[in-house]
Amino acid sequence: MSTTTPVRNVVLVHGGFVDGSGWQGVHDLLAEDGYNVSIVQNPTLSLEDDATVTARVLDLQDGPTVLVGHSYGGAVITEAGTHEKVTALAYIAAFAPDKGESVNTLIADPPPGAPVPPILPPQDGFLFLDRAKFADSFAADLPPKLSAFMADAQVPWGVEALSGSITEPAWRVKPSWYLVATDDRMIPPPAQRAMSERAGATVAEAAGSHAIYVSQPQVVADLIKQAAQAAGSRQ
């Protein structure tokens, strides 16, 4: 006779142009429900480095863990998620590359008519979004003051992070969940659906911008809890 114990540890990984503070709403909801939540602060200099930083946080977990990534953070969890403590993956409007793929290869051929993210030409090996277009492309459903702050607080995204390729994709060996943001203007929703289908993920959809992890923390927390419950039943 086996009993189901939900996974209680959650590690949250942010994407490019932002830091981990955007996870506060999701963190608070999960913490209120008794989850142990850790937030990775990746320097986003290279994929290899970010996977190493994420692995350090995973090392500190006291048992099975749900590893969550937003946007570029999806590439990070795909690379870092083979860690022995990771029992489930959750992608939030995120890249889910396969072996040998990178963010660069996934964005190389955008579908016809898809919005083009307003990424400025690299400066000294780093990328920024056009501040004037940040809200519309990244955070259209956030209060204007908050999206303006996020635009002004951008974290430089290293070109090497975009070109870093996956060695062994974790979603091929770990169960995954995926939240499609249907109003996303950074990663086209059809691309999100294609990546989630390829990964065999359990998929949910919600109307939201690329910043859905900030604008709709309850929807995101619910998906993570679903992953935690299901992963617990597999233990």
From TrEMBL:
Residues 10-222 form the AB hydrolase-1 domain. It comes from the Bacteria. InterPro entries: AB_hydrolase_1 (IPR000073), AB_hydrolase_fold (IPR029058), Sec-Metab_Biosynth_Hydrolase (IPR052897). Gene3D superfamilies: alpha/beta hydrolase (3.40.50.1820). This is Pimeloyl-ACP methyl ester carboxylesterase. It comes from Kribbella orskensis. The lineage of its organism: Bacteria, Bacillati, Actinomycetota, Actinomycetes, Propionibacteriales.
